[in-house]
Design a protein that fits this description.
The protein has about 450 residues and is of the alpha/beta class. It is about 30% helix and about 25% strand. It has two domains: about 1-50 and about 385-400 and about 420-440, Urease, subunit C, domain 1; about 55-375, Alpha-Beta Barrel (TIM Barrel).
């Protein structure tokens, strides 16, 4: 199979020019002006932007959580991602406390193998670091190609590890060439505030937000960074939401330390006023919660300063009946938010179109940086000869509204219902095959491949 893309405006993290792309098999074979080779399919991209396929390094598909499971599985979730221009996702394997990392990996492989439309990889979430777990780290890195290890500083009794376990994990992961990522919130303080509000009869979604004030995130971010500094480990803070946490990341740069930071599209454009909508606020119950307008401004600034390297989604959708499990108690609302399909369009519309970020920065934070940080570059994350032909053809001018009526995610409401967007994903190509085109699906379930990743290098 060969494809010739003609007359597109090609944008990478560092370049912006009009050219053609020739794809042979699953790789980009040539880039240049007025390419004339014959191809099985010719796509006229005149007036369109041509980006590397998006990479979302923070999703939760078919994940057991809070007595239920996220409603997008690997089939529906990766297909929705492709409709939204994201060609590769990285999901989280969650170790069960008392059991091995291999046990967890086999569970996740059972759900993902043969079911994905788009490409995918895994982070390994370590919830029980002990001598047995320590011995598994090297094999995860070298045999399985899983080089990033997630930790939780919250959710005591299920996911949370203490600082001593964190230090032990950091030392072992560093020795094996991996990276430690973190959900950085102070779980003990959050649990105290949850119990306080519930004892006072305060049960609405607003109290989910009030149980996780900014200090719970900023303190944990600083503590994680200090532990990473002590051990010399490379760190990565997921779903950063607030100015206080970002300031800790700014401070650590002064001591020549590398801790990467990721935010999510919702924290850039939504705010905590949504929790005032009685139980409808449950649509936006996620952890950490939405913050204030001043935090949005800080996050956009962090992106432009290079302090925040990645914009992801933390996609973890639940249908409305699942959200209603917490109708009488905010602490029982499943935490999560659907966005895997909307990240690229929202980031373009709210970022590039409104002048907050450049086109090159858009590619950087939506694709290239994630590929570099997580050991997939230059196979993924760029438009270059020899790279995987993962390509998004994007109309920068088409206006449309986001809605549950038109999205492809397996959730029966939209967290962005009626949101007016400028810019639309038109054609998504995955490894040389047109995957989605103007809403039509042209590949079959199972086309998506697992991506084994290289050891971590601090390169950004």
């Amino acid at each position: 199979m060969s494809i010739l893309i003609k007359n597109g405006r090609l944008v990478t993290a560092s370049e912006d020019f009009i050219a053609d792309i020739f794809i042979e098999g699953d790789k980009i074979s040539a880039i240049g002006k007025n390419l004339s080779m014959s191809a099985d399919e010719v796509i006229d991209a005149s007036g369109k932007l041509v980006f590397p396929g998006g990479i979302d390094p923070h999703v939760h598909l078919d994940m057991p959580f809070m007595g239920t499971s996220s409603s997008d599985n690997y089939e529906t979730g990766t297909l929705a991602a492709l409709h939204g221009g994201t060609t590769t996702v990285i999901d989280f394997v969650l170790q069960t406390q008392g059991k091995s990392l291999h046990h967890a990996l086999e569970q996740w492989k059972g759900r993902s193998n043969g079911n994905c439309y788009g490409d995918y990889s895994f982070h390994m979430a370590v919830t029980d670091f002990n001598d047995h777990t320590k011995a598994e780290i090297k094999e995860m890195v070298e045999k399985e190609g899983i080089t990033s290890f997630k930790t939780f500083m919250a959710y005591k009794g299920a996911l949370m590890i203490d600082d001593r376990q964190m230090v032990g994990l950091m030392n072992e992961v560093k020795a094996c060439g991996g990276m430690v990522t973190v959900h950085a919130t102070n779980g003990d303080l959050i649990d105290f505030l949850i119990a306080k509000h519930r004892s006072e009869g305060k049960r609405s979604p607003l109290y989910h937000y009030l149980s996780q004030p900014e200090i719970t995130e900023s303190e944990a971010t600083g503590r994680f960074s200090d532990l990473a500094y002590q051990t010399g480990a490379t760190g990565y803070v997921v779903h950063m939401t607030c100015e206080g946490a970002l300031n800790h990341i700014r401070d650590i740069a002064k001591r020549n330390q590398k801790v990467y930071a990721e935010t999510c599209i919702q924290y850039l454009i939504l705010d905590a006023s949504l929790y005032q909508r009685d139980f409808e606020g449950a649509k936006w119950v996620m952890s950490p919660p939405l913050r204030e307008l001043k935090d949005q401004a800080a996050l956009w600034a962090g992106i432009n300063q290079g302090t925040i390297q990645v914009v992801a989604t933390d996609h973890c959708p639940f249908k409305w009946d699942q959200k209603r499990l917490g109708e009488k108690d905010f602490a029982a609302i499943p935490n999560g938010h659907p966005a895997i399909e909307h990240r690229m369009e929202l980031l373009y519309s709210e970022g590039v179109h409104k002048g907050k970020i450049s086109l090159n920065k858009f590619v950087e934070v939506s694709s290239t940086n994630a590929a570099k940080i997580f050991g997939m570059y230059p196979k993924k994350g760029t438009l270059a000869i020899g790279s995987d032909a993962d390509i998004l053809i994007f109309d920068p001018n088409e206006k449309h509204a986001l809605s549950v009526k038109t999205h492809h995610m397996n959730v029966d409401y939209s967290a962005y219902e009626g949101w007016e967007v400028t810019g639309k994903c038109k054609t998504t190509i995955l490894r040389g095959q047109v995957a989605t085109d103007k809403g039509d699906v042209r590949i079959k379930k199972g086309y998506g491949q697992f991506v084994k990743r290289k050891k971590i290098k601090a390169i950004i």
